[in-house]
Every structure is written in structure tokens, then in C-alpha cells.
Amino acid sequence: MDNRRELEKFIETLKDKVDLVEVIQKTSEYRFDTRRSGRFIKCVHPDSLVVDPDWGQYTWFAKGGSAGHQYETGDVFTWLQKHGGKPDFWQAALWLAELYSVKVPEWKRDDNTEAAKNQKSRAQVFEIACAWFEKQLFKAPAALEYAHSRGWTDETIRAARLGFSGGTFDAVNDLVGELSMHEVNVRDAATVALVGLRGNVGAWLSAEGIVDGSPDWVEDDRIWGLASMPCLVYPHIWRGRVMYFSGRRLEWVARNDSEAFSWALLKDHPERVRLIGRDKPKSYNLPGALVGERPFFFNHEFHRNADRAIVVEGPGDAIALGQLGIASVALCGVAANKDLGDLLQKVALKYVALDNDKAGRDALVTVAQTFGPMTRLLKWERQDRPVAAATQDDLGEDEQELPDTAEVSNGEG
Known about the structure:
With 413 residues, the protein is an alpha+beta fold. The protein contains 16 helices and 17 strands. A hairpin with a 4-residue loop joins strand 3 and strand 4 (57-64).
């Protein structure tokens, strides 16, 4: 395992072990009423400070936010760097490792310092990019129209932090400018996954030590970034941090069938174009060679002590269930594993509802076995009605009832 990925594993281990309430109380005069109010623990004074222990996230309503947030919000590292006297990311990590008895990877100090800076940049770039994608969605009428066509309300769109990639060269340049303004290295691998790279790609790959990239990158001397193609952007958020992005590929078309789409038409008359879902390829995922393994997608209602959670295939279905107040996890093409099974251990009722096609049927039992014998299988009787568009009529006779979600999604995934 290379230094960067070993560091990421170390940081995730820290975040899983950390008790954010304990950290805040150790580094400030603030004290909490440890009785929960729903999923939150509230500070006694100031009462505007709350912690979501399941997500390892705090929100301070009396403080102004940044990166698209109305209020100050963040995880344990945000707290320590802003309020805990640990302004350096690596300093905060070492302090937490000592507090929670987590072994620090054994590298030379120079390697540690550089790797920590890379991790900090990775966290920053994804949060800044997520806020930028969110703004683009509400600035582009055609993109917001597409999101609404999926049956999602503005409230759901904002809660899930959905975004739009832009999909034009102007959008790429704008995102590069936004990241540069925040002093992000736009040639870092994670940033290249978002904005792309053109020219001297082979030399860049060698300098970064990337050996498992696409052969097309060197042949074309170009890496296409997420912002260069029109996509509805799904941020994969875990414990308050944006870990990854996936997307629903879209396509620009003219509203009038008698008119052909052109970039000039989009620029001069944006009201005369719209976005539709693209069939092949349907989904987009960031290259693993640049950002590492693809994580699962947890919807905005998910927390580890949820009464029930439904495992589905795509983020669109998970978001639709979130609109109904139901916790959900989307596999996103990643095989269910022991880590996910352990994560869902505290969830009282677990359901698996994969698409009713051959791939979904083949995976259904295997996925359910991962979560234990009390897992309930949901089967949709009609192949063209995936989970987000299901009604009671679609469920098998022995399956658990779900709310009627016929108006929530058109099932595009």
C-alpha cells in the first residue's frame, strides 16, 4: 500500500474511533447534555452548538459557514484546526492518535509531512468542488429541470448536496479558478479527476507514480475530468466529509425537435436547450487510479442507529428513499463486504432491494448473506419499476410493505 492510501486508511481509522463530544469538551470549556435530542447531542452553552455522533459532525448555528454552508459545520479535524489549538492537519492527527491509541504508520518524517498535506488538499478540494457543483445546479435551469424531473424537491436536492458538473470548457475553467482561489494544487491527482489534464500526461503520470491509469490517457495526451462532461453529480459523503463523486451522465439536446443542438445555441440561447439522461454510458465514476477505491453512497437520512435501512443499487434510488425519510445505502457497483455489514449491524431492520434484472437477481442473495439472516429481501415484480418507483403492487406476497413512492422517481438510477 502506498503512502497516500495508507494515510487515508489511518485517517479513516481515527475518525471511526473518535468521540467528537469528548474531543470538544477536552479542547474547550463547552459541555454537553449527553442525552440525545433525536440524532443530535446538544451543547449546554452555547446551545447553538450540536453534534451528530453517528456522522462525527458538528454544526455551530451561531457561526457563519464557508464552502457553501450557511453555518459552521465540520468534523473532528475541522474543530481541532479552528478551535482546538491544532492548526496543522498532521498535528491534529497525531494528537488524536495518542488520545485514542491508534498506531501511526511508520514513515520518515518528510514522507509523513508531504502525505498529510496531500490528504488535507484532498479533503479541501472535494469540499470546495462539492459546493461549486451545488451552485452550478441552481444556476443552470436545464440541470435543475432534469433534477426536478426525477421527482426530487429542492429540499431533497439541497439535503443530498446534489450538483451539476457544468459540462463545458467554460465550466472547467471556472472550477479551476475556484480551486486556485483556495490555493488548491490543480495538478494533484484528485483535482485532475475533476478538472482534467491536457498535455505532457505521460510525464505527469510518471511523476505522480500512477501506473494503473487508462492507456487512452497517454495515447490522447489528455485526461478528461468530471467538469468537462454534463453530469448530475452525486457526492458520496461519509461522516460529514465528501469522499468521492459519481454522476448520472446527461446529454444536451435542443428543446425543439426541428432544431439541432450546438454549443453556440447553448451559449446564446440556453432557454432553447435541455438535458436528458444518457443511455450509454449511463453512469460516471472518478478514475480509481486518481482517487482510489469507489466508496458506497449513503443518503442524507442514513445514520448508524437508524430504525431501518434499505440497500439499493444506485444513488438515485437512495436519494428518492431519503425524500421519504428512509435511510438507504447504494452499492454503486461495489460488492457488499464485511465492513458494510459491520456498519449496518446496529440498524434494527435491514432490507435489500436491488433492481429486478439479471445482475440484481444474481447479487440479491449474496448481498443479503453479508448482512445476516434477519435481512429482508424486497423483490419488485416489474423489471421496469426499480426501488424508487415502487408501489405495494410491486412487492412479493411475503415482502415487507414500503410507502407508496410512485411519484418520487422515474427510476433512472
